[in-house]
Amino acid sequence: MTEQRRIDPAKARPASLLERADAAFGLGPVGRAPLVPPVPEALRRAPPRPQPGPAPAGAAERREATASTPAAAPAPAPAPEVPRAVALCGPMVAIDRDHLREAGLIVPEDPVTGLLEEFRIVKRELLADARAAASPLARRILVCSPHSGEGKTYCATNLAIALAAEPGLEVLLVDADVVNPAITARLGLPEGPGLMDALADPAIRPEALVLRSDIPGLFILPAGSATNRDAELLASARTGAVLDRLTAGTSDRIVIFDTPPALAASPAAALAQHVGQALLVVRAEETGRAALEDAQQLLSACGDIKLLLNAARYSPSGRRFGTYGTRGR
Fold first, then answer.
1. What is the DSSP letter of 53?
2. With 199 labelled, which of 43, 179, 207, 218 sits at a CA distance of 20 to 30 A?
3. What phi, psi does 173 have (nearest 5°)?
4. Measuring CA to CA, which residue among 215, 171, 208, 169 is closest to residue 189?
5. d(CA 186, CA 317)
6. CA nearest neighbour of 195 among 222, 233, 171, 217
7. DSSP labels for 284-312?
8. How far apart are CA 21 and CA 17, in angstroms?
9. Are the C-beta atoms of residues 284 and 308 closer than 8 Å to each other?
10. E strands within the chain?
């Protein structure tokens, strides 16, 4: 009879590949895979993180175009605005030529004289420095003297007439001797509003007070109404604004200032800050060395001071101008 025995289930089921490998090679019992740690309660309750959806149509193309397009260059800075020249637009006046001859001044239509040749030499040096200088202040020229009676107004007037003969040049002769104005009287013109009125009232346009003479290229700005604040007005910031308006934006305008004597009044020292050249007139055999040095010190705000010897009766080099011909200038 067949013997029946209880079958051990563990021995009855076929061995797996891992179990048979263990039996053959003695690898030891196969451990169970570690369990996944439980998820914390807080995470189980958190809402699911939204997943990015599909990119809208054309987004990739836009990103590619953005990446391939170079950044726009910054806009260039605007060019500085160049000031426009202010036209000298005051009333028209006629200068009596006979009055010029009686005063011993240069007459534009007369034959060339030794006086004209002397001032041609003076103006050449002043013009050369004005054109060579980097600063527009060099086109502003102060004419002064240490004391009265040394010929500053005479020289300033002749210099202005000689300069006005230069083609394409405008010459503005400013009577800045507010203590004793003499420019209009020298030229035979009536007195009227001028420099001091423009300084006292900011609403006044200085170019409207400039007299346009019938000598081509010559303009005159009278001294104007005198007050007891003349020195303070000339030393104020308004002076710089007025002079800038008369000279800004033009390279063909020369301004000549006839000022009071440096050792007699303060306007010359105040105006020396606003000019690039100063012409110090001294009278031969009269002006002392100490007075000359004191005047030079008072005008030291101007970096270019030139000396003009007036009424000299001789020349160390023997040079002397006389009449040469009868042709015009």
1. -
2. 218
3. -95, 115
4. 215
5. 32
6. 222
7. TTTS-HHHHHHHHHHTTTSS-EEEEEES-
8. 6
9. no
10. 92-93, 140-144, 170-175, 211-213, 218-221, 253-258, 277-283, 305-310
How many Å apart are CA 148 and CA 158, to the nearest integer?
Answer: 18
C-alpha dihedral sign at 287, 291, 295, 297: positive
Report yes or no: 276 and 135 within 8 Å, Cβ to Cβ: yes
Could you report the per-residue pLDDT of 163-221, keeping only the tens digit for each? 999 999 999 999 999 889 999 999 999 889 999 999 999 999 999 999 999 999 999 99
Strand order in the sheet with 211-213: 92-93, 211-213, 218-221, 170-175, 253-258, 140-144, 277-283, 305-310
Q: Domains along the chain?
A: 92-310 (3.40.50.300)
Contact 313, 103 (CB under 8 A): no
User: Mind listing the pLDDT tens digit for each residue in 135-170?
Assistant: 899 999 999 999 999 999 999 999 999 999 999 999
What would the two tokens of residue 113 be?
Answer: 């004289």
Taking the chain, what is the end-to-end CA distance rounded to the nearest angstrom? 165
pLDDT, position 4: 52
Arithmetic mean of pLDDT, 84-105: 93
Here the tokens at position 44 are: 């189980």
What CA–CA distance (Å, rounded) separates 130 from 139?
5
Q: Tell me, what DSSP letter sits at residue 207?
A: G
The pair of three-digit structure tokens given for residue 111, joined into one six-digit string: 């034959």
Mean of the per-residue pLDDT values for the chain? 82
Predicted model pTM: 0.73
Position 213, amino acid = S
